Amino acid sequence: MKAKKITEALIDHHNEMRKLVKEIEKDASKFIFLKKHLDIHHELEEDLLLSKLHSKKDIKDESLESQEEHVVLNQALLGLADFPKDNQRWMIKFKVFDEILDHHLEEEEEDLFPEAEKALSEKELTDLGTQFIELKKQRLSAVLETKPVKELEKPKAKK
Ligand SMILES: [Fe+2]
Ligand SMILES: [Fe+2]
After folding, report:
1. CB-based contact 3:124 (threshold 8 Å)
2. In this structure, is residue 107 part of a structural domain?
3. Looking at the domain assignment, is residue 78 inside a domain?
């Protein structure tokens, strides 16, 4: 299989999270999976990619902006985790959160990642892509108690 650039691997993960958002709109109990995915996504995106872009003059501002948006999103995730899901306002709060998330993912995909692909070499991009895919797998299986994600996402059978 062809090695993926980190930008491509991050977009794959964005799409996985977009799917989760749709599932949460029908079943709020799945929110915890999105929180785990997004926590890991932010950590790895910052450690592997943004930290490198902060030193590139042309994209420093956009890269810092992405990091600041992570701070806002992380706060919103904590707020949603703490708020009772049976309260009608939870889904309203989630929709507002999703609008911010959507804006963030689009901005990365349309502005930041194309710039990153110009600023870093093909080899750097694919080396980082391989690291991202491996670390994401490790960290997700650790927080999801080593069970495959698919299994945990299946609705529980009625007793
Ligand atoms: Fe991000
Ligand atoms: Fe991202």
Report:
1. no
2. yes
3. yes
**Per-residue pLDDT, 1:** 72
Predicted TM-score (pTM) above 0.85: yes
Q: How far is the CA of 77 from the centre of ligand 1 (A)?
A: 14
Amino acid (one-letter) located at 118: K
Sites in the chain below the pLDDT cut of 70: 146-159
Domain count, the chain: 1
Is residue 152 in some structural domain?
no
pLDDT digits 0-9 by tens, 79-91: 999 999 999 999 9
For residue 129, being part of any structural domain is answered with yes
Q: How far is the CA of 70 from the centre of ligand 2 (A)?
A: 9
Angle between helices 31-44 and 122-143 (to 10 degrees): 140
Ligand nearest to the CA of 136: 2
Instruction: Give the range of the structural domain holding residue 98, as residue numbers without chain letter.
Output: 6-147
